[in-house]
Sequence to fold (157 residues):
Amino acid sequence: MQGEYMSTPATPQDAEVILKLYDLRREALMREARRFLVEFDPKSVDDLVALSMKFGTKEQAYLRQVVGYWGMAASLVSRGALNKEIAVDNFQEMFFVYAKLEPFLQGFREKMGMPQFALQIQQFIESSPEARQRVDEMKKMQADMARRRAEAAAVAR
Fold:
C-alpha cells in the first residue's frame, strides 16, 4: 500500500535498481539540475513560489526535475520495487533536498494548489526514524554551511 514502507531483504535486483538510479543522476542535465538545487537557498515559501513561477526557465525545470527524480525514487520504495534500507543508505542527496525544502512545503503546496508536490519524498522520510534523523542531520549541516559562508563573506569585506 502506498505510504506504507514494508521492507524485505535486499536482493540483487535492488542492487540493479540502485545502480540504475545512480547512473541516471550522472546524466549531464541532471547534474546541472542537482547542482542548482544544492546552491538554491530559499529563505521563505515565497522564494520557492517565485522559482516555481519562472515558467520556461531552466531553474524552474531544474526544481521540477530534481524533485520529480527523488519523488520517483521514493515511489519505487513505497511500491515495493526497491528495498527500503538500501534506499535509506543511498538517498543522501534526497535527504539534503528535502531538508532544504521541508520548511516551506506546506505553504508552497497551499499557495500553488499542488498538494502532491514532493509528497512521495515526504512519505518516504516520515516512514522511518532513520530517514527523519538523516534529514535532521542535513538541516544541521546546511545551517553550518550557511554560517561558514556568512563568516567567509564577513572576512572578505
